[in-house]
Amino acid sequence: MSKLEDYGGGQVPDADVLVVTTNDVPGHRVERIIGEVFGLTVRSRHIGSQIGAGLKSLVGGELKGLTKTLVESRNQAMERLVEQARSRGANAILMMRFDVSEAADVGTEICAYGTAAVIAPVA
């Protein structure tokens, strides 16, 4: 039986830096835009998961080992994104996105990026 965290991610409810994919946060106003921030990680694929993925691709179905690796990578990129924003005084990241690409045929580059901002509840 797999754990939910193995195949998903996202923020914990009480996070000190709110990350949203929207341009604004309902019930809040943007007091200050700090600027673009990003978190980056590059992961190589280990030989075991590549062999397993190759065999699985012959019969079809989910490549669970690669899925777990991608989830871990995205979560690490997001953690780094939040650290960058926090270190610059932000309490929110607006318009967060992920970008995934191949890195010189040796791994996968995952970049989480967005706009660091200071937001406050509307009075």
Task: Describe the model.
The chain has a single domain (14-121), classed as Hypothetical protein apc22750. Chain B (Translation Initiation Factor IF3, 2-Layer Sandwich). It is elongated. It contains two helices and four strands. It has helices spanning 47-59, 64-87, and strands at residues 18-19, 28-44, 92-103, 107-121. It is an alpha+beta fold. It starts with 17 loop residues before the first strand and ends with a strand.
Question: How would you describe this structure in keywords?
Answer:
4-stranded mixed beta sheet; alpha+beta; Translation Initiation Factor IF3; 123 residues; single chain; UPF0145_YbjQ-like; 2 helices
SSE class: alpha+beta
**Tally of structural domains:** 1
CATH superfamily: Hypothetical protein apc22750. Chain B
| Tally of helical segments | 2
Radius of gyration: 17 Å
Span between termini: 46 Å
Q: Helix and strand succession?
A: EEHHEE
CATH fold name: Translation Initiation Factor IF3
